[in-house]
User: Which sequence fits this backbone?
């Protein structure tokens, strides 16, 4: 395990073997997981520390992909007893939602994240989708973080609402998709839903709408951004986590945290997600440069200028 | 019939009795129709001439609503043999689509629009959704219009594709919703669909996406605009025609026609549609002022600024 000091940005999330089928093709056993997409997406703008767990079966070449992006793996636990988390899913038609075929939690079932000492003073933290009790235990290990943003999903909204509401009182930002925003808030209208979620505690709420872009809600401003216009989407897997990585990478890389900064960061989240979905796994996301991001961010700015 | 000279903007479309049911309530026999929504929406920015037909049953107070917005009714035919077009529809859930319950074409069945002499040199023309053969006959009556924009719907894409493609070669702009754009182009991806439609002839294509806003496609630029953020939508009827009225009203009112002007005009289309959907019929749309439009257009600009 390397120790390069405290990384400016940490993510707690999954590393996975994915089997993915889309209208463009089928790939088995490819590198996936929320922490994977997040950290590689963010790595173009800030050094990222990963907190997660894999099994002994996690291959050296997958670890090497992360290391090639200077991702700090001091928080990556290898569980000698189990296998790496495995997800299989399928996308059809306009690919707005995955049909999950298999979820083998494996090493995730007993995972209790322990932050390495070097991560505890990390200023920018992303809590990817997981049990809110686990998210809370991570939050308790942090020493005075500057900006904590979390994701969640319908499963936790349904079965763990109480701990979810507790942690929402303690984070700066919530990132969530449109269906989840409606479900968590109990509002049918998305604008009403976003505003209602602010009352749960976060200073800002980002609602991800897939091909329809994203909204930011805060006390002082509402902001809308379309997705980057793509004629072809090969595999939507990882789009949301890449978006989060782009947002948090931009903020950590510029040491920014105001709402206006978050809006600008959403440009980078959107752009990095557009690279992710243009191929399977990290095939494109892993090979782009900061210049590619800047060029598409400029394009996206022109796309919305009026 | 009044003759106030050539209006800067004409619309060929319907005037209707609507029965509408939404989660907010139910109204019967209210004033509706594409030309109605279009002309009142546009009237805040330019004087509009209406070409359409009603029956003897069309009440004086509905005519008075249009006249109170200085709409030129020289092209409004009253068919003594028939009843006014009647539509009944219902919206549920997130109200993204109407379920049509009744369509009584009535006087529309035999309508062959004749432009009054004062309308033939009209520079800005909107051909609302109708049989493309009728749209073509109107186009043939115009003398050198500056900007002609048309709407269409799935019915004509399915049963009148040939005349539709012919008229597309002759108009400047096409306004169409997302499902229609995909169906007409044969493309599943909306960005690919918009680009494909440009190849049918129009200089620009505006794709309306309801609550998700709108796209503009042209050779030289793509443009995206979200819808105005509303917490409550009472009745979506007329949103698309109001949008068209806002766009064309802005262009006719400023004598503009470049693609960048069309993008700015979409701000006004979006804003005027947001007033339309906040109540039934013209209950709000009919009572706003140009200042209300400008204020929301400024808000919408701030909503997308990054």
Assistant:
């Amino acid at each position: 395990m390397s120790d390069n000091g405290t990384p400016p940005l940490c993510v707690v999330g999954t590393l996975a073997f994915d089997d993915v089928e889309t209208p463009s093709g089928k790939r088995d056993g490819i590198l996936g997981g929320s922490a994977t997409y997040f950290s590689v997406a963010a790595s173009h703008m800030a050094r990222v520390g990963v907190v997660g767990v894999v099994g002994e079966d996690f291959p050296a070449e997958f670890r090497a992909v992360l290391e090639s992006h200077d991702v700090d793996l001091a928080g990556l636990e290898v569980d000698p007893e189990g296998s790496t988390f495995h997800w299989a899913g399928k996308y059809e038609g306009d690919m707005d939602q995955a049909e999950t075929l298999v979820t083998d939690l494996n090493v995730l079932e007993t995972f209790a994240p322990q932050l390495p000492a070097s991560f505890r003073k990390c200023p920018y933290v992303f809590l990817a989708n997981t049990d809110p009790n686990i998210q809370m235990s991570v939050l308790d290990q942090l020493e005075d973080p500057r900006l904590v943003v979390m994701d969640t999903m319908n499963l936790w909204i349904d079965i763990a609402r109480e701990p979810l509401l507790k942690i929402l009182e303690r984070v700066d930002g919530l990132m969530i998709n449109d269906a989840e925003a409606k479900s968590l808030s109990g509002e049918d209208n998305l604008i009403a839903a976003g505003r209602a979620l602010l009352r749960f505690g976060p200073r800002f709420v980002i609602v991800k709408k897939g091909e329809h872009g994203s909204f930011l809600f805060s006390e002082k401003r509402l902001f809308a951004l379309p997705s980057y216009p793509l004629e072809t989407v090969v595999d939507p897997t990882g789009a949301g986590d890449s978006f989060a990585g782009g947002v948090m990478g931009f903020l950590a890389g510029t040491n920014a945290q105001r709402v206006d900064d978050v809006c600008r960061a959403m440009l980078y989240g959107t752009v990095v997600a557009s690279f992710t979905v243009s191929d399977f796994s990290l095939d494109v996301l892993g090979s782009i440069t900061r210049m590619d991001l800047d060029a598409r961010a400029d394009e996206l700015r022109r796309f919305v200028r009026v």
